[in-house]
Amino acid sequence: ELKVEQNPLFLSMQEGKNYTIYCNYSTTSDRLYWYRQDPGKSLESLFVLLSNGAVKQEGRLMASLDTKARLSTLHITAAVHDLSATYFCAVDMFEGYQLIWGAGTKLIIKP
Amino acid sequence: KAGVTQTPRYLIKTRGQQVTLSCSPISGHRSVSWYQQTPGQGLQFLFEYFSETQRNKGNFPGRFSGRQFSNSRSEMNVSTLELGDSALYLCASSPRSQSSSYEQYFGPGTRLTVT
User: Fold this and answer.
1) Closest residue by Cα to residue A33 from A19, A20, A44, A47
2) Mind listing the pLDDT tens digit for each residue in A23-61?
3) Residue A27: what pLDDT?
4) Residue A82 DSSP symbol
5) Closest partner residue to A43 among B50, B55, B106, by Cβ?
6) Residue A20: predicted pLDDT
7) What is the DSSP string of chain B?
8) How large is the C-alpha radius of gyration of chain B?
9) Contact B105/A42, CB-based, under 8 Å?
10) What would the mean pLDDT of A3-25 be, rounded to a whole number?
């Protein structure tokens, strides 16, 4: 059974600081996704990572994938308040056509 | 291009009733997936349809069912509602092609409250 673990589950940080969210998964998979969810809202796609060593960046967010370690990271650089949200990673089951989700990391960025 | 739409957005039902939720995917997308989101269980996969065929089903009781129409629109039905079915139900569509990296695009969700 594929399990996806995120840590930390809750993160409170000051603006301007850097931090990393970790996503570990338990079995082979060929696609990993990062999503953002604002309170009461739906899920917004941030990154799609398809291969070992993939790195993608958008603004202050950078995601990477290490398929050998079964680990993805979401790095936040010089955080700003607008990045406050819950961040989810999800792994696509190989040929299973379904996403298995991490529990989410609630990120609060204080001015 | 219009995004994924879900109707209704909010719904209040009584235990024992049944409910039908609707999802219209992005034009050209043939895959529709459904997820349940609750504070306790997080995001859980319900089922996925592609070209009117259910290709995969999550670990939910038979009270949860769905279907997809020829225009790719999808419905999910929950019969004999229980309090624990209160959740945000999210629909996602995907073109399901390698060129798209199988990315899923989510609708705004239907908030179901069972009393």
Assistant:
1) A47
2) 999 977 768 999 999 988 899 999 999 877 889 999 999
3) 79
4) G
5) B106
6) 97
7) ----EEE-SEEEE-TT--EEEEEEPPTT--EEEEEEEETTTEEEEEEEEETTEEEEE-S--TTEEEEE-TTS-EEEEE-S--GGG-EEEEEEEE---GGGTT--EE---EEEEE-
8) 14
9) no
10) 95
Q: How far is A81 from chain B (nearest CA, A)?
A: 23
> Shortest CB distance from A104 goes to which of B31, B42, B103?
B42
pLDDT category of residue B101 using cuts at 50, 70 and 90:
low
A61, A36 Cβ separation under 8 angstroms: no
pLDDT digits (tens, 9 = 90+) for B105-115: 999 999 999 99
Strands B105-106, B87-94: parallel, antiparallel or unpaired by DSSP?
A: antiparallel
Q: How far apart are CA B37 and CA A107, in angstroms?
A: 18
**Chain B CB contacts of A35 below 8 Å:** 106
pLDDT for B46-84, tens place per residue? 999 988 999 889 999 999 999 999 999 999 999 999 999
State the Cα–Cα distance between residues B114 and B82, nearest whole angstrom. 7
Cβ contact A98–B58 (<8 Å): yes
B35 to A99: CB separation less than 8 angstroms, yes or no: yes
The answer to whether the beta carbons of residues B65 and B77 sit under 8 Å apart is yes
Residue type present at position A73: T
